[in-house]
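agent: user wants the full assembly modeled, not chains individually. Plan: 1) parse entity lines 2) check alphabet per entity 3) run joint structure prediction 4) return tokens. Steps 1-2 passed, two entities, 1284 residues total. Proceeding.
--- entities ---
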Amino acid sequence: MKRKEFRKLISVEKAREIMNNLQVFPRPESLALENAYGEILAGDIVTEINVPSFPRAVMDGYAVRAEDTYACSETRPVELKLLGNLPAGSDAKFKVSTGEAVEVSTGSPIPEGANAVVMVEYSSEGDGTVSIYSPVTVGENTMKAGSDIRKGERVLRAGRKLGTREIGVLASIGKKDVPVLKLQVGIISTGDELVQPGEKLTSGKIYDANSYTLYAGIRECGAFPLLYGIVKDNETAMKKTLETAVSECALILTSGSTSSGAGDIMYRLIDEIGETLAHGISIKPGKPVVIGIIQGVPIIGLPGNPTSALMIFNEFVAPMLRKALGEDKSLKKTENGIMGTRFRSEGRQQLLPVGLIRGMVYPADRGSGAITSLSGADGFIKIPSSTEFIEAGTPVEVTLFGEVEKPDLLIAGGFCPGLDLLEDLSGLYFRTLFTSSSGGFSAIASNTADIAGVNMPSSDPRGQDGILYNVPTVENMGLSGTVLVKGYRREVGLIVRQGSLVSGISDLPGKHLINRNRGSGARALLDLKIAEFIAGKGISKKEFIDSIPGYASGAKSEVAVCEAVASGKAEVGVGIRNCTEKNGLHFIKFAEEEYDFLIRKEILETFEVRKFLETLTSTEFASKLTSGLHVYERTGEIISFE
Amino acid sequence: MKRKEFRKLISVEKAREIMNNLQVFPRPESLALENAYGEILAGDIVTEINVPSFPRAVMDGYAVRAEDTYACSETRPVELKLLGNLPAGSDAKFKVSTGEAVEVSTGSPIPEGANAVVMVEYSSEGDGTVSIYSPVTVGENTMKAGSDIRKGERVLRAGRKLGTREIGVLASIGKKDVPVLKLQVGIISTGDELVQPGEKLTSGKIYDANSYTLYAGIRECGAFPLLYGIVKDNETAMKKTLETAVSECALILTSGSTSSGAGDIMYRLIDEIGETLAHGISIKPGKPVVIGIIQGVPIIGLPGNPTSALMIFNEFVAPMLRKALGEDKSLKKTENGIMGTRFRSEGRQQLLPVGLIRGMVYPADRGSGAITSLSGADGFIKIPSSTEFIEAGTPVEVTLFGEVEKPDLLIAGGFCPGLDLLEDLSGLYFRTLFTSSSGGFSAIASNTADIAGVNMPSSDPRGQDGILYNVPTVENMGLSGTVLVKGYRREVGLIVRQGSLVSGISDLPGKHLINRNRGSGARALLDLKIAEFIAGKGISKKEFIDSIPGYASGAKSEVAVCEAVASGKAEVGVGIRNCTEKNGLHFIKFAEEEYDFLIRKEILETFEVRKFLETLTSTEFASKLTSGLHVYERTGEIISFE
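--- prediction returned ---
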């Protein structure tokens, strides 16, 4: 067989050892103090001044010799001669002798001879005199020179991350420019299929996400990213970019072009102009990883897939950057969670992207081509090769994708604009997986979602006009331990262009239909309405649908349906009203379906679900619902399935 | 009495209410994606494309019609006609019919007619053909258009903080510029005593720390600070700066010039050109706080003291900024701790700066003039007016000064360069309070330090030459439950200029001495050496020391001693050898003192103390110790006090 791979994958331990031995040297750079927040100090800071640099009043009042006040009291004040006023910041010179005082403010220097400050509250000024009503002790309301920070003291150690507090200390000792560590990391994305965000996406291309996720990830580690853009799968172009990066950076990250596909030449290039230390780590998705050195500058080739690249970055590269910046303690952000569902492993070591919602961990892998596994993931877990299954309930450690905001609720099911409104009004953060209604039921069954938004109709005598929503499916699937919370009604109908001659289901034969995907409530509802229409007319369902070109199509979203109709690719579609209005289309209502929420019973009393339901039944939600969606008397009603 | 204050302080609740009602509006601003990391999204992001935008191969191999492969096996491959190669990023068009295949790479579009990809591992190419050895199902190794992110989906909601992951999602839908919230906050420092860091510190002045701590604090909240520098206590200058800031910012923070001292005119100015909403909050240190509005722009006057300003900022201003930036959840960083020592409150509501070390909380207040309370503090606790004492062991909630790195060990006692070396080699983070030896013993007694570095000599027959270090003091103070770990020896002696005629203690009479402060080991040792010298000579100690001008002086540090000698202010000083060498001075050794570590027994087995002791007894420490310090056979020896 052609293109068979013979290269030897190295172990995770070996990969770490190689990376640990790479020489990645940040260079010191001087930054203006205000720009140094969050950076790592490049050298020890020893103060050259005392803080304060002079004995200082810490209250408004009068600098005196404490001895002069010992005998005074509220009823028997002592009168001192007032020599003058010494405001804060003044360099006027006074010498206070017995029986004398100088007016001072907070921050004033203590004049020579004085050794205490009487607070203004315990004094009254006369003509060239001040009367003191309360004695002070030596040193009272004053502060000695150097009592904050002593000259010669090491105030900050090299390697300290500069927070608000450190910035304040540096300012107070007069440092305007501070030496910080600058670790410049070059980023190169490779692949003919990549287009830069902001440019037009032509056929067969995808946007370059890696340049930007790596940029953010490098910043999060405290290093300085430098973008070299997208390089085509062309040896000359790649070589040129690599050489520039080698001259400018302490480390280079590339992504893409490292697997064994036809266009992958990066690793051959590293071999040619540098040295390859490893090609492939035996952990999924580490197979395409390349580690090399070009003219002393380490280069790491990451997978092209954004989630894979980010996992390998967090697992292997980020710790190296942090170490190079002198962070002794591992800053890898991890959090413990409980596996929310059973996961079957492939029997090899792997990093699995996961979501972490209220302490529960859910696999977020949708195949290695997916970028959503990124939007749907908060981090990843490491699975050893010996693990076949991770059972639900198993404690696992999640390495987070940096500083992530974690969702409050994981919602699966059919798309609805009402969900966005519920999210906005509740203030909760939903992670939404649009799986159609059938996928929503499955997600509740497999415990991979908290709530499913569902609108699945069934022919059932218990329902109005013989159609009952969602309850039959829950019953048929045996989804015990759940509740169905009645949501709101949605106008469903046919979607046509303005001026279309289609006026109802009877007109469908001969018209090019764009249908919804199997498993969606809209498609199921259309089928029921067709059955209703043909009932007693002596035509079979097969006959009727065979007469509709495109009946077998399966658009994955309302938006896709509207587009197909608006663009003329189809004459008629099926969907909810809301979507048509934005697109200037005409809507022919044929039903009001019920969009409900299926919830696992054990989370009904959590703060998040209570907030969700409270919002659903609020008057604000009712009044802000978009056209074609209506709350009704059953909104919020709970049907329990034991 | 003059300058009596009549203004009415408002309650904390009232202050919060006023601040909550202030209108602080961030403006949306477009940022390039790579610069948007960490910013807050200003609007919902709805994707205008599907991701991927075309059906896509997720493996290298051959795009086929799955039906063609159903019957094949390893021993009976099926041979398909190879139409050509369709690399990732290519827009070449192929149409795959029954019996045909197209070579594809990961990321290639699936050509028309094909519905699956056979992995290259299960194929072999012939002459214009490819043999398939393993069947695939419909959709296998492919990914549908929109299966990651669906066109029309709201991918990110306004108000989301943009992390690595969010940046990746934005890139993958092609967003190059993103709308983020920009909340511009002006910073004005006022006071004639302020000098900008980097400039020369003249008599009576201090460096402006507030501009920089507030700058960092504002950045930490996600807002954009703008520095207006230092404004003198001059009404015209202040008015001009305020007016500029009002025209440029959504909020203005000033510090200083708000208390009732002579030079404080800021609050009168706000009254004049705007409206004062409050002057003074009844919580220490909130008395100088001013809240006002000028032409619709809120202005908050903070105390001039850096720690006070930062506490008021964190307690009142930071939550307002975060709220204005749409952070629903309070991001105030708090951590629970246990009070490590008894604290006596003043019977009024207050914010107390504290250190947080290994879960223990220690007051870090050194008086309102201190900036070190900032370097020594990790945050603050709020004490209600009803609290008289907080007992050691009480759980308290600490509001952190943002992202703070917390120390591993709190060390008090006498200054020693050996401590810096111990910190460097151990990798631990020490918070060091230089209190002299006597302060170190007290800190252990009051449980306000973990370790005290001490070098206190006593006349004691148990010691070598009748001098015993530290043990007698521990015994006299009754410091039970502690251990004394023997440290290292330090050469102590007289410090003189090169060419000085002083050659020992006998030469001190008539020479101007710069002595150390009472409580320091060096001063105590000099006294013992003087006693030794005069013994049997028929002169009293009083007589001898009275003959030494400057004997009563008390420099707070070695550095100050060396400076006094080097500058000629004194003829002779007392200290350790190390310090003299840096200053080109001459050193006349009169003893080798013992510098030891007093440690509370209950923390002896913590990771941090073990690491500390391990470093103390390491060969690396021994070899790197600076001149005049020596480890010896007793280094690391533990003396236990029950």
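agent: reporting back. The longest strand of chain A covers residues 482-496. The longest helix of chain A spans residues 306-324.
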